[in-house]
From TrEMBL:
GO molecular-function terms, A-Z: acyltransferase activity, transferring groups other than amino-acyl groups
Organism the protein comes from: Candidatus Chloroploca asiatica
Name of protein: N-acetyltransferase domain-containing protein
PANTHER family listed in its UniProt record: AMINOALKYLPHOSPHONATE N-ACETYLTRANSFERASE-RELATED, AMINOALKYLPHOSPHONATE N-ACETYLTRANSFERASE-RELATED-RELATED
N-acetyltransferase domain location: 10-173
Pfam families in the record: Acetyltransf_1 (PF00583)
Gene3D superfamilies per record: 3.40.630.30
InterPro entries in the cross-refs: Acyl_CoA_acyltransferase, Bact_Acetyltransf, GNAT_dom
Alphabetical UniProt keywords: Acyltransferase, Transferase
PROSITE patterns the record matches: GNAT (PS51186)
Amino acid sequence: MTPTASTTALVLRPAADAEFWAVARLFAELHQFNAGFDPLFRLAETWEALLYEHFRQTHHAPGACWLLAWRGDEPVGLLLLEAHTDSPLFAARRWAELVALYVVPDQRGSDLGRRMIAVGTQWAAAQGFDRIQLYVTAANTHAKHFYARCGFAPVQEIWRIALTPAPGVIPPPDPSCETNGHAAHQIELGHHHLAMELCASPNVEPPDA
Ligand SMILES: CC(C)(COP(=O)(O)OP(=O)(O)OC[C@H]1O[C@@H](n2cnc3c(N)ncnc32)[C@H](O)[C@@H]1OP(=O)(O)O)[C@@H](O)C(=O)NCCC(=O)NCCS
C-alpha cells in the first residue's frame, strides 16, 4: 500500500546543515502562497542566496529555531522563529518573531501546524521570551483562524495607502540600513535580522538540492 499523508508518521526536527534545500523549497511555496494574496509580498530575485546566507549564519544560533517536518524523505512543514530586538527606544523590546510557517497542501488539517506551533512556543519560552509575535496577511482568513485556534490574538495592524510615485525617482535607502560597517549597531536600531540581509549583497551561493 502506498503511504498516504494521514498514515505516514511525521518527524519534526531542527533543519540540519545539508537541509537548506528543504527549507528553501517550503519557504518559496509559502511566499508564492502569500504573493497570491498580495503581489507586493513577492520575493526578490536574489531571495534564495540571501536566505541561504541567513540560514548558514543562524541555524545553529540560540536565537533562532529552524524546524522542518518530514514525511519520510519529503519535507512537509517549515517553522522559523527568531529573536527580534526592537529599538532601545522601547521598554519591552525583545520578543520571538514567527518569521515563517508552512504546511504542504496535502498535509493540512492533520494537526501538523499546531504541532509545530507547540514546538515553537516551547522553544521561545525556554529561551526566556514572554511572547511570540507574527505578521499575517489580512486576506489569509485560514491562517488567522488557525492562529486564533492556537491562542494568538491580534495586537496591531498594518495599514496601507497606494501612492503615485514621482516618476524616475528611486526611493532613498532606509537610513538605519545604510552600510557603515557597524552591523551590530544596525541590529540595535531594531532591524529584523532577515530584513537586514536584504541590505547586504549575498556572497555565498546556496548549494544545489
Ligand atoms: C496555516 C497552516 C500552517 C495551518 O496548518 P495545518 O496543519 O493545516 O493546521 P492544523 O491541522 O494543525 O489545524 C489546527 C487548527 O486549525 C484549524 N484549521 C485548519 N485548517 C483550517 C481552515 N481552513 N479554516 C479554519 N480553521 C482551520 C483546524 O481545524 C484546527 O482547529 P480545531 O482544533 O478547531 O480543529 C497551513 O494551513 C498553511 O501552511 N497554510 C498556508 C501558508 C500560511 O498561510 N502560512 C501562515 C502565513 S502567516
